[in-house]
Amino acid sequence: MTSLVQLANHVWLYPRDDDPNRVQPNVGVIITGRQTVLVDAGNSPRVARRILLALDERRAPPVSTVIYTHSHWDHVFGAQVYGAATIGHDLCRRQLVELAGKPWSQAYLQEELQRTPAREAGLRAMSRAIEDWRGFRIITPEITLTRILRLHLDGITVEIEHVGGQHAPDSVIVRLPEARVMFVSDCYYPPPPPQRRPSDTLDWDMIERLAGEEMDLFVDGHGLPRTRDEFRRLAVERES
User: Fold this and answer.
1) N or C terminus: which one in the chain shows less Cβ crowding within 10 Å?
2) Contact 211, 46 (CB under 8 A)
3) How many Cα atoms occupy the beta-carbon half-sphere of 150 within 13 Å?
4) Is residue 223 part of a domain?
């Protein structure tokens, strides 16, 4: 069983799957004395159940809240397992309301593959992630923000800020000032593969702007946590 990795006081990580074909991103975990807050939900109910087992191993309090960094399936499809409040950007909610109306099943994925062959990799990853679509539900954000939302949880400040970006216009970052950790998720990534052009790159301006903040660790969706210098280096070492 995958175990939680501690990043700072009260802050943990359920790490991504090393196999890129599984498309299981990092899930942030904030554990206070009375509750647990997740940054993203995992890519499936199966992964969400594994996260709950990892939390039980740490004797963590119940999950009270799940913060969606953006609406892409691999970050939200596990949410139904937690029975927790969900937070996301206004646009995230609109997009997930639309997705929730789809007839999710293996047959539907096959139809989507025929309609949009460019999505093959993502659709096949989705098919591997969800073993059984019966009872599957997309949980839309109950609480939304337009720019910034601050939570004060048992003495821990959680700042959620909309940054948008080319990967997903609804992207938010989650900043933990006391712990000096920032969950940036996929906000600085290029567009998703179906929309990506050969000339698309990481969002250098986004990296430089976020790296200017006084944080010790930057955690994206699909890579290892980076120190501030390591994160800034992504932009410094860009190809000219």
Assistant:
1) C
2) no
3) 5
4) no
63 contacts 153 by C-beta, under 8 angstroms? no
What is the spatial distance between Cα 69 and Cα 96, in angstroms, rounded to a whole number? 13
CB 213 within 8 A of CB 182: yes
Contact 40, 25 (CB under 8 A): yes
pLDDT the model gives residue 235: 81
CA–CA distance from 223 to each of 200, 230, 238 (Å)? 19, 12, 17
- Would 230 be classed as within a structural domain? no
Residue 213 lies in a domain: no
Closest CA to 77 of 113, 52, 104, 114: 104
Residue 155 · residue 161 · CB < 8 Å: no
Total count of domains within the chain:
1
Instruction: Give the whole-angstrom CA distance, residue 131 versus residue 154.
Output: 37
* Cα separations in angstroms, 87 against 33, 60, 141, 221: 21, 21, 5, 17
Helix, strand, coil shares of the chain as percentages rounded to 5? 30, 25, 45
> Is there a domain that residue 20 lies in?
yes
- Is there a contact between 174 and 156 (Cβ–Cβ < 8 Å)? no
Dist CA 13 CA 28 (whole Å): 5
In DSSP terms, 149 is beta-bridged to 160
Q: Give me the sign of the Cα torsion angle 65, 68, 69, 74.
A: positive
Kindly report, residue by residue over 76-102, the tens digit of the pLDDT: 999 999 999 999 999 999 999 999 999
**CATH number of the domain to which 20 belongs:** 3.60.15.10
Identify the pLDDT of residue 237. Answer: 67
